[in-house]
Design brief:
Structural class: mainly beta
Distance between the termini: 39 Å
Radius of gyration: 13 Å
Low-confidence stretches: none
Shape: globular
Order of helices and strands: EEEEEEEEEEE
Number of strands: 11
Length: 118
């Protein structure tokens, strides 16, 4: 059973960088999946942020690309999201998930709430 768990600060100040880590257990992030970050702002739908492929390649949402970086540590079986220059609009529940490269995600983390506020 694959499990994903997000971790990171719940409060970030405006203009700072949000950094979250997803720890994967029960499966390797070097297997052929798309290890993704998705968020849900309050009262809104899910928004895809980006992924890191098992090969190490990355792809980001065009609307967030200039501020987003996703990296991985294969020795720890973790992948990390960094979102720079945050504003209150980046307040959301952030999820990591395993995807097939399309619209299907078969395993999700429980999510972590991040609030951007001074």
């Amino acid at each position: 059973q694959v499990q994903l768990q997000e971790s990171g600060p719940g409060l970030v100040k405006p203009s700072q960088t949000l950094s979250l880590t997803c720890t994967v257990s029960g499966g390797s992030i070097t297997t052929n999946y798309y290890w993704s970050w998705i968020r849900q702002p309050p009262g809104r739908g899910l928004e895809w942020i980006g992924y890191i492929h098992y090969s190490g390649s990355t792809y980001y949402s065009p609307s967030l690309k200039s501020r987003t970086s996703i990296s991985r540590d294969t020795s720890k079986n973790q992948f990390t999201l960094q979102l720079s220059s945050v504003t209150p609009e980046d307040t959301a529940a952030y999820y990591c998930a395993r995807g097939d490269g399309g619209s299907k995600y078969d395993y999700w983390g429980q999510g972590t709430q991040v609030t951007v506020s001074s």
